[in-house]
Amino acid sequence: MKIIQSISALRENLKKLENIFLIPTMGNLHEGHLSLIKEAKKISKNIVLTIFINPIQFSSGNDLENYPRTLKQDINLLKDIGVVILFTPSTSDIFPTKINLSYKMPIISNELCGKTRTGHFKGVITVIDRLFDLIKPSYAIFGKKDYQQLHLIKKFVFDSKLPIKIIGAPIIRNKNKLALSSRNNLLNDKDINNAVGLYKNLKKCAESVMNGVKIYDAELIAKKELIEEGWEIDYLEIRRQTDLKKPSDMDSELVVLGAGFFAKVRLIDNIEFCIPSTI
User: Fold this and answer.
1) Which domain holds residue 165?
2) Which of 30, 33, 120, 151 is catalytic?
3) pLDDT of 147-159, one tens digit each?
């Protein structure tokens, strides 16, 4: 594995590669990230993994400052598992000039996570656009835990007519079913065990709707239970899988998404599910 920091060195090494598979990350790697590598290896041997903590996707300076930085540990984790290039650029490398995204963000970027995290998804798409331009991958993979992000990246690639196949990878969970996340490191052992309440209530919500409970009622019950468990709810909603719009009575492929603060740490999760076409 070559560790590259400069854009000039990156371009030189990319000349030798075809069928590039890009895995963008912000570091603090865990089993969820390693699962992305396993999926990528099924398609290409030329895997480029990036570690870049993108400052323009954070909603507050404190959130950016507190994000775990574990580059030495990440490098050790990546040794001998199939990554050809690890690219760790500086902010000035990624954004050498004034940041300008010409792409018009879809309305959905201002809903769900985007409702309270102003500019978050524009920041995500901006850095993804830059990485795509630098690396020119044939494939890129993103975890389904960030469901809305995955949807917006797919739409960006489609709208921009980029020759890149975007792959969504399943959520990786711990033994208690808590979705793996770098933010989990900010929780103590007791809070990690209790944080699985988000998954449990999302699961109950989905099962209720599958059993005939009205969507609004199921959402309300789940939110109430989470609040009683100590959560500060950002949102908990059921949407269509295809476009994340609110479902009609005719929609059957749905996803319940939730985000909130537990022990002052913001966590997200989602569960896809299907019901008969009459709710």
Assistant:
1) 2-169
2) 33
3) 999 999 999 999 9
Q: Which two tokens stand for residue 7?
A: 């854009």
* Token reading at 74: 């990440």
Residue 186 and residue 154 share a domain: no
Q: How many domains does the chain have?
A: 2
Q: What is the pTM of this model?
A: 0.95
Buried b (16+ CB within 10 A) or exposed e, 2-31: eebeeeeebeeebeebeebbbbbbbbbbbe
For the four alpha carbons of 7, 12, 14 and 15, in that order, the dihedral sign comes to: positive
Residues 117 and 193 in one domain: no
Do 155 and 193 lie in one domain? The reply is no
CB 51 within 8 A of CB 25: yes
**Is 120 an annotated catalytic residue?**
no
Tens digit of each residue's pLDDT (9 = 90 or more) over 254-269: 999 999 999 999 999 9
Do 98 and 193 sit in the same domain of this protein? no
